[in-house]
Amino acid sequence: MYRFTRLHLIAQIGERVAGRAAFICGAGGNSDTESEAMIAAAAQAGAGAGAAVVVTPSRHADDMDCLAGFYRLLSAAADVPLMLQNAPMPMGLGLSPAALIAIVRAAPGIRYVKEETFPCGQRITALREQGDGLLDGVFSGAPRRRPRTLVVRTDAAATQHAGDLPLAPHQGSAPSARPDLQRFRARGRAGTRRARPARARRIA
User: Fold this and answer.
1) What pLDDT score does 193 carry?
2) In contact, 54 and 64? CB cutoff 8 Å
3) 185 occurs within a structural domain
4) Is 197 within a domain?
């Protein structure tokens, strides 16, 4: 997507949402400068994003100090909480929990982590144990198994499962409660059943 298109969409969505719901803006880019522009747009009065999610860029894969400096740069560009998206390679870097905590300590503007590297559950547990007081929340990102995103608070009073953040506007509390998903699965199963050709019988 072109840079000006992204900037336009950020402004339009922020204007439509108008503070009525949590608005998280994707601020990753092909360069540090582009990411800086995205997060600046997210912080403008017209957008008013509550956070900006930024994937760990592969261009800083060989230097964790530079990676931390990248997130500090974004924090200085706009007063918007950062969400570090820990996607596996090649999209991201797939950092270990220990490496993530080191980055968070070096870049205090990171208030959330979206953990997408498997196994997500064990990694989220490690982040909760090691990141107490450093993070406001940890998000899981495994939509292939369940079309929802798990939200885990990391403060001392939090429970293990603090709630779910739907990825799509539906009312069901689980995929099985969604009639549209049930119909989709039914159609998929029906489509895989192919009629077998009758076996030719040998007639003496």
Assistant:
1) 47
2) no
3) yes
4) no
**pLDDT digit of tens for each residue in the chain (204 aa)?**
678 888 888 888 888 887 788 788 899 999 999 999 999 988 885 667 889 999 999 999 999 999 999 999 999 999 999 999 999 999 999 999 999 999 999 999 999 999 999 888 899 999 988 888 899 999 887 655 444 444 444 444 343 333 334 333 333 333 333 444 444 344 444 444 444 555 555 554
The count of domains in the chain is 1
What's 86's domain CATH number? Answer: 3.20.20.70
- C-alpha angle 185-162-48 in degrees, rounded to nearest 5: 90
The torsion angle over the Cα atoms of residues 184, 143, 92 and 134, rounded to 10 degrees, is 160
Domain that holds residue 104: 3-192
Does residue 56 contact residue 95 with C-beta atoms inside 8 Å?
yes
Q: Is residue 199 part of a domain?
A: no
Q: State the Cα–Cα distance between residues 89 and 122, nearest whole angstrom.
A: 18
pTM of the model: 0.70
Confirm whether 124 is domain-assigned.
Answer: yes
Separation of alpha carbons 50 and 113, rounded Å? 14
132 Cβ contact partners less than 8 Å away, ≥ 6 residues apart: 154, 155, 156
Nearest in space to 109 (alpha carbons), one of 69, 65, 71, 56: 71
CB 42 within 8 A of CB 80: yes
